[in-house]
Amino acid sequence: MSTNSPEDLLVEGTLGAWRRRDGDGLPVPPAEWADLTDAGRVRAYEAQLRSRAWERALDDDGLSSTVHAVLARIR
Asked: Looking at the domain assignment, is residue 68 inside a domain?
């Protein structure tokens, strides 16, 4: 049985590098971000830092998913 709180699930929803774009092509924060408390946003930020570090460690070129997403947009 999962012990994730509703806020844990919101934090998890912010971890991906993919972002929806608005009409001008600018990235939009995940919808979960708006529902987080201030403490939840700090937790999400810290979880994103850990996630990107793991991604870099697993990538042959040492790049995170965020870097891959940016490179895909400019190539």
From this structure: yes
> Is residue 16 assigned to a domain?
yes
Would you say residue 17 lies in a domain?
yes
CA–CA distance, 35 with 53 (Å, rounded to integer): 25
Range(s) of the domain holding residue 58: 6-74
Name the region of 62 (left: φ>0; alpha: ψ -120 to 50; beta: rest): left
Q: What is the pLDDT of residue 14?
A: 92
In the chain, the number of structural domains is 1
Question: Average of pLDDT values for 9-35?
Answer: 91
Class of residue 11 by CB neighbours under 10 A (exposed 0-12, middle 13-18, buried 19+)? buried
Residue 62: inside a domain, yes or no? Answer: yes
Q: Please determine, for residue 24, whether its predicted confidence score (pLDDT) is greater than 90.
A: yes
